[in-house]
What we know:
Layout (H helix, E strand, L loop, with lengths): L2 H5 L8 H15 L4 E7 L5 E7 L9 E2 L5 H8 L4 E3 L12 E2 L5 E2 L3 E9 L2 E10 L10 H16 L24 H13 L6 E4 L6 H10 L8 E5 L8 H6 L16 H4 L4 E5 L6 H13 L1 E2 L8 E2 L3 E6 L3 H6 L5 H7 L3 E3 L10 H16 L3 E4 L1 H8 L6 H20 L7 E4 L19 E2 L7 E4 L4 E3 L2 H19 L4 H8 L3 H10 L12
Parallel strand pairs: 9-14, 9-15, 10-11, 11-14, 16-17
Antiparallel strand pairs: 1-2, 1-8, 2-3, 4-7, 5-6, 7-8, 12-13, 18-19, 19-20
Helix pairs in contact: 2-4, 4-5, 9-11, 12-14, 15-16, 16-17
Amino acid sequence: MTLLDAVLSLSEAPARDEALQRILRALARVTAADALSVLTAAEDGSVGVAAQIGLSPAALGMSFRPAEHPRLRRATQAAGPIRFLDPSEPDPYSGWLLGSPGEIHPIHACMAVPLHVQGRLAGLLTLDACDPHGLRGLRDEDARVFAGLCAGALRLDAGPEARRAIGPASIGPAPGSRSAGMQRIEREIAVLAPLSVPVLVTGETGVGKELVARALHERSPRASRALVIVNCAAIPAQLVESELFGHRRGAFTGATAARAGRFEAAHGGTIFLDEIGELPFSAQAQLLRALQEGEIQPVGEDRARRVDARVVAATNRDLRREVAEGRFRADLFHRLWVYPICVPPLRERREDIPALCERFAAEIAAELGAARVDFTEPALGALAQGAWPGNVRELKNAVERAVLRRTIAEGKRAAGRALVVRREDLDAIDGGAPERSLAPRIELPGERPWLADTALGQPVELLAEALERARREAFARAFRAAGGNAATAGRLLGLSRSFAYKEAVRLGLIPPAGPRKR
């Protein structure tokens, strides 16, 4: 079992004690520890056993005063994982460790990690092993991950201030999300935000991956520092390393001055690498070093620089397939895949759609100066049944269009008035069943079917579809003129070779290349 498999067990835990027990069971599967426990700190300074595996059943509920136990005192004062190497030092669990049924063994190896919630000591995670070398295989970094998960579980009982909601500008309804998927994500964010481990956010286009990254940053100890957002797909391939890691003066043609990269700008904060699947292979090795060693090397410099930036990445690609086909480094994939957050598409959480519609309508109502925006039941029902391939982003655009159409249809200023969105104000909505269009489909000579807009009284093509069609035609012409050569086609289009090639593959104009030989 991997560390990923172990930490996934927390996401379904509904309460503190059950969550703690699941974390300990997961930790037991990835370590050689014979006993594990979580102790919680009380107001009087004592610590009590809240969850345990491998100890005598009577240990549950036991309370200790750290001042009377040297190991507990040192553990509560430690900044991170601490290992107890002196066998002569008394252990509070001596005689409580179970071996074979009915048999008690002394403890030979012991480790503890302090648990902090909102900067205060909330408890301890302890690990014990009969084998004196039994805990050598557990890295301090992995112990911190499990300690963070335990602290997150304790936060479930810490009240609303300790577990702040994602917020109103979120990927779904704020606390009160109806869908199980969004409630899971809220719990995962609460657990992962205080940690520094990398997080990979996956999901389709438009589901709100950037908003998950923002929530992770805003609820972390790094919230007072910068959140630097990088769209990896928008950076020309030849400039990626300079953009991310910086360069010195004269490092390449056009480098007239030294420049710090995005990682240095995110020092002490968080860097969000959106569309990380688009990152060129050559830049992935540097990113791996930044993740593993906390070091970057600006282009043209001989020495590496230390940088402390928490990495959150996002992709709508299947990175496992990218690795298998040689387009993404396997070692980088495994370093990012510590704990993935998968944001479900809107069609899998339809119960959230009404609240999202009300939120988006309220936002545009504020811009128009309207008192409020309501929906008729047929309108809200149609929205809730939509397929929404563009997910939350598409839904937001549809709601805004509907509110504007209603405003135009009434022919009056919206300021101070209440608007009611009706079924006829909406676009044709594909619910995944036979299409129930609001308006007739009109065939224009030599063209594809267009949508008759009843509010404007004239046929219009959806903007996204028009742009995609024009893009496909432009790329097709360029590749025909270039004889299929991506570099030449890119120059004709004013784009880099790599971007032109990727777009041509996406549009189905040329076949993808096979796996690279390494």
